[in-house]
Amino acid sequence: MNARAARTQEARATRRWPLRIAFAFTLGGLVTSGVSLAGAGHFSLATTTTSADHHVVTTTSSTTTPGEPTTTAGGTPSTTKPPTTSTVPRPITNPAYFTPPARGCNMQTASSVATTTTSTSTTEPMPSSTIPPVLRPLVAQASNLGHCIVLQVGDSVGNNLGYGLSAQVQGTPGLSLALRGKASTGLSNSWYYNWPKELTAYLQQFHPHLVIIMLGANDEQSMVVNGHAEQFGSAAWKRAYLDLVIKMDHLATSAGAQVLWVGMPIMGPSGYSDGMKILNNLYVEGARSVPGVTYVSTWSLFANGAGVYRPNGYVNGNYVGLRHPDGIHFSSPGQAVLGTFVARQLGSIYHVPIFPHAPAMITGW
Predict the structure, then answer these.
(1) Reduced to 3 DSSP states, what percent helix, strand and coil does the chain have, rounded to the nearest 5?
(2) Residue 22 neighbours by CB distance under 10 Å
């Protein structure tokens, strides 16, 4: 091969690399998001995560313990390949029928979809220009979003979700997101901030179709029950806390809204993380008790394939910090990952075309 031919071949190969990278990224994004078509011709995003190495998707139908055994781990990049699969449990919901929100919003859970045969919305489909090109062929299978008001509440970790979710759903036609989280709050410290009272006011103010709740970071503390101080995790404490969870659920559903309860993530401090498992189990019990409530786990989303907490990881190929040094709160990249996950859950659970604006996915540890 002469020098001129060699240069020509090298130039052609160089031009092909951007196309290969773009194709690989698009394919990886599709597999990571777990795009699938599910019953009744509705659009669905499988509730999964994938490994960075092989993009192998594993779906689990486990609805048992939302937490997993946890130990702390260092923040340095791993010198070995990450596990090939990492799973996020399927959403947990009460199968009893719940009348989907009216007022022009088409968010419907699977049980509602099975009962509802026609849509009452007269809104136009989402403009194709706002949909990622690779996903446009699937939009025809989804219900129109309509005009939906989403209220998101919680504590400081809930605020992390709110910021991440807001960035991911910005510009989604027909979706209005109201963030009303407050740091240092919870259900066990109503003397400081009474969430049932505040939620009642927000429901009257916004008339949401969906309420997203993420709290619990401040609830590992004693609570007064029937005039007695009950220690966190005691049987009486759990019963009283579950009553508050169900009260929050009933307040929202009685106002005509569905509830998406987002579970607390794995935490850095192991003892503190164990407390989050207790709380997550109570949120699951609430979701199973009240029609119209769905629980989604975030636990394994921020743990590696062995169930180990990792404060750092590769997001879209870049090694970044996911959590703050306290082992509890999320960094900006961590918020983006959390927001991407919940945005996809909205599309999958409620059968509407909602896509992350700038998807951020963990691609390795």
Answers:
(1) 35, 20, 45
(2) 10
What is the DSSP-derived secondary structure letter of residue 234? S
119 pLDDT more than 80: no
In Å, how far are 49, 55, 127 from 83, measured between CA atoms? 12, 11, 39
| Strand duo 92-93 + 175-179: pairing | unpaired
Q: Are the beta carbons of 53 and 364 closer than 8 angstroms?
A: yes
Structure-block tokens of residue 36: 């699938």
Take residue 362 and report the two structure tokens written for it. 């963990």
Q: How far is CA 100 from CA 210, 255, 292, 311, 345, in A?
A: 10, 12, 8, 38, 17
pLDDT digits (tens, 9 = 90+) for 343-364: 999 999 999 999 999 999 999 9
Residue 65 CB partners (closer than 8 Å, separation 6+): 277, 281
Task: Lowest mean pLDDT of 50-59, 108-117, 285-294, 307-316, name the range.
Answer: 50-59
Q: Is the pTM of this model over 0.85?
A: no
Q: Is 78 exposed, middle or buried (0-12, 13-18, 19+ CB in 10 A)?
A: middle
| DSSP secondary structure letter of residue 254 | H
pLDDT, tens digit, 9 for 90 and up, residues 17-72? 343 434 333 333 433 333 332 222 222 233 333 222 222 222 223 333 344 333 33
Q: DSSP letters of 106-171? A: ----HHHHHH--S----PPPPPGGGS-GGGHHHHTTSPP-BSEEEEEEESHHHHHHHHHHHHHHTT
Tell me the pLDDT of the chain averaged across its residues. 77
Amino acid letter, residue 344 = R
Fold of the domain built from segment(s) 8-364 = Rossmann fold (3.40.50)
3-state SS class at 42: strand
Q: Where are the domains of the chain?
A: 8-364
Task: Map tokens 């996915």 to a residue.
Answer: 361
Per-residue confidence band for 110, with pLDDT thresholds at 50, 70 and 90: low
